[in-house]
Design a protein that fits this description.
Chain A: It is a multi-pass membrane protein. The structure holds 2 protein chains of 2 kinds. By secondary structure, chain A is an all-alpha fold. Chain A has a single domain, classed as MetI-like fold. Helices cover about 80% and strands about 0% of the residues of chain A. Chain A has helices at about 10-25, 35-45, 50-80, 85-100, 105-115, 115-140, 145-155, 160-195, 200-210, 215-240, 245-250. The longest helix of chain A is centred in the C-terminal third of the chain and has 36 residues, at about 160-195. Chain A is globular and about 75 Å long. By secondary structure, chain B is α/β, with parallel strands linked by helices. Chain B has 2 domains: about 30-70 and about 140-235, Rossmann fold; about 80-140, no CATH class. A 6-stranded mixed sheet of chain B has the order 5-6-7-3-8-9, with helices on both faces. The longest helix of chain B has 18 residues, at about 155-170. The relative contact order of chain B is 0.17. Classes of the chains: A mainly alpha, B alpha/beta. Chains A and B meet through helix 7, helix 8 and helix 11 of A and strand 5 of B.
Chain lengths: ~250, ~240
């Protein structure tokens, strides 16, 4: 993935127009502050350490939620994908639950786990679970049966077939699931952090809204976006490394 | 059976029914040590089904069938794992500390000693199929099961691969069951031909043409015509 400078033209131009419009008074500073003010707020909050603190808090929640939801999705997806009994027992309820908009569960979750940390982590875990489950399941199911057969004729036991054929074969799908899970995870975090809280980016934004500090609200949005972007970038790099065998396929 | 213990394949009354359709209706088959047997038949005659049964890939077949010694399979498609390098594909399931050496030897034998580090996606169709042969050879099989192994290759590559098969066979002396729909290929490579028709072995022909052989050896065309007739194909365009 090469960074082509031409692709930077429009984003920079848009920021410049935004700044210009704000300076010229076209945009009301209460509604949308200029990027320079947002940068200023970022600098200020970085220096006093509060941005770092909120950021760390949010990243911790996201990581914990992704870990719980991801592992659960991976495990159940593997059980449903690998074993017929697992498929019959696990898949129907998961497919049904998938139709529930998980962000709509907030009121119910508040009753179940309260408005504290567990709510945020549960929401992220729920958001991450479904993409991981579905893509693990699909990845295992879509494996070319002929390759499994060839592995059998090579004398591989069932466990070895899972290790050498099924898991690597499901990898591309798994990575897709991971990327979707990260996206859903961040989204869930944003929603979760707006429900009460004493820390985190969401708390920072809600507090700023109460004091009409629009630039901090915008800053929060930008930090959320950067987190999403960075995690996606990291995943794509990991994917390129893990799936280097696909390079030849892509070129042809 | 006790009187001729050296056979690598013994099968009696093999039956296989798919849904309501009987594909194999009591097939008897015996392959001696080091013998190459070609299995011909129209498409849908059950050739591949029989091979899959002998390869242990079909659990629903009935009848008696046993293979002795080690066996390896080469399919029409190379079936290499795309996420493993060529050498790892060849070494798949090979146990023992000498696996790397054996892998290198097998790759050398199919003329791909330099490509061990390549990904399967970087190989041509012919090269991939040669790797598939190396993957079979590295197991030092007493019996090679070949399911139209040259069927997906272009005509020139096919000729080269058939020659390679002849050389490998001369060196290793494995027995083989070669499923093919190519009459000339069957005549070039096999010691004995079996024609499968409506689920049974309809004809058995010894090929006494010597080795190595070419399509212009005396007797080749006569056998070819006989086989085509058995397969319900007119040997001459006018017929």
């Amino acid at each position: 993935m090469r960074l082509r400078p031409r692709r930077l033209i429009t984003p920079i131009a848009l920021v410049a127009v935004w700044e210009g419009a704000a300076q010229a008074g076209v945009l009301s500073p209460d509604k949308l502050p200029p990027p320079s003010k947002v940068a200023e707020a970022a600098w200020r909050l970085t220096l006093d350490g509060s941005l770092g603190l909120h950021l760390l808090e949010s990243v911790e929640r996201a990581a914990l939620g992704l870990l719980i939801g991801g592992l659960l999705g991976l495990f159940l997806g593997a059980v449903a994908g690998l074993f017929r009994n697992g498929d019959d027992l696990v898949d129907p309820p998961v497919q049904a639950a998938r139709m529930l908009p998980h962000l709509g569960l907030v009121p119910l979750l508040i009753i179940w786990v309260g408005i504290g940390e567990s709510l945020k982590v549960s929401l992220v875990a729920l958001g991450a679970f479904f993409p991981i489950y579905l893509n693990t399941y699909a990845g295992i199911r879509d494996i070319d049966e002929r390759l499994v057969e060839a592995a059998r004729t090579c004398g591989l036991t069932q466990l070895e077939r899972i290790r050498h054929v099924v898991l690597p074969g499901a990898m591309p799908s798994l990575f897709l699931g991971l990327r979707l899970a990260f996206a859903a995870g961040w989204l869930s975090l944003v929603v979760g952090e707006q429900v009460n809280g004493q820390s985190g980016l969401g708390f920072m934004m809600m507090e700023a809204r109460d004091f009409s500090q629009t630039e901090i609200v915008v800053l929060g949005l930008i930090v959320y976006a950067s987190l999403g972007l960075l995690s996606d970038l990291a995943l794509r790099t990991a994917e390129r490394r893990a799936l280097s065998w696909r390079r030849g396929l892509k070129a042809s | 059976m006790a009187s001729r213990p050296e056979g690598v394949v013994t099968a009696t009354g093999v039956r296989r029914v798919f849904g309501g359709t009987t594909v194999l209706d009591g097939v008897d088959l015996r392959i001696e040590k080091g013998e190459v047997v070609a299995l011909l038949g129209e498409s849908g005659s059950g050739k591949s089904t029989l091979l899959r049964i002998l390869a242990g890939l079909d659990e629903e077949a009935t009848g008696e069938f046993t293979t002795f010694g080690s066996k390896a399979v080469v399919f029409q498609e190379h079936r290499l794992l795309p996420w493993k390098r060529v050498a790892e594909n060849v070494a798949l399931g090979v146990r023992g500390g000498d696996a790397p050496d054996r892998t290198a030897t097998a790759l050398e034998e199919v003329g791909l000693a330099e490509r061990g580090r390549a990904w399967p996606s970087e190989l041509s169709g012919g090269q991939s199929q040669r790797v598939a042969f190396a993957r079979a050879l590295v197991r030092e099989p007493d019996l090679l099961l070949l399911d139209e192994p040259f069927g997906a290759l272009d005509a020139l590559t096919r000729l080269k691969m058939q020659a390679l098969f002849g050389r490998l066979r001369a060196r290793h002396g494995f027995a083989a069951l070669l499923v093919t729909h190519d009459v000339e290929e069957a005549l070039l490579l096999s010691d004995r031909l079996l024609v499968l028709d409506r689920g049974r072995i309809a004809e058995e022909i010894e090929v006494d043409l010597g080795h190595p052989r070419a399509v212009d050896v005396p007797g080749f065309n006569e056998l070819r015509r006989r086989l085509l007739a058995l397969l319900h194909v007119p040997a001459d365009p006018e017929e």
